[in-house]
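Moderator note: this is an archived Q&A kept for reference. The question asked for a predicted structure of one protein chain; the sequence and the answer are reproduced below.
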Amino acid sequence: MNAKKISLFGIFLALAVVSASIKIPAVIASVALDMVPALIGAVVLGGRAGDVLLFLVICYRH
């Protein structure tokens, strides 16, 4: 991984962690926004880096 990809990985991971604290109240349960930056980051980073990003966000949620 080059420096640009590592920087983007860190930015998307930080966005996912920060957005995990934002809860939108809904009728049945609250909706967390932590998967949005993770999914966008997975598309932008692609391949193994995107998989690791999604894995880390899912582990952080639980």
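Archived answer notes: The chain is about 70% helix and 5% strand.
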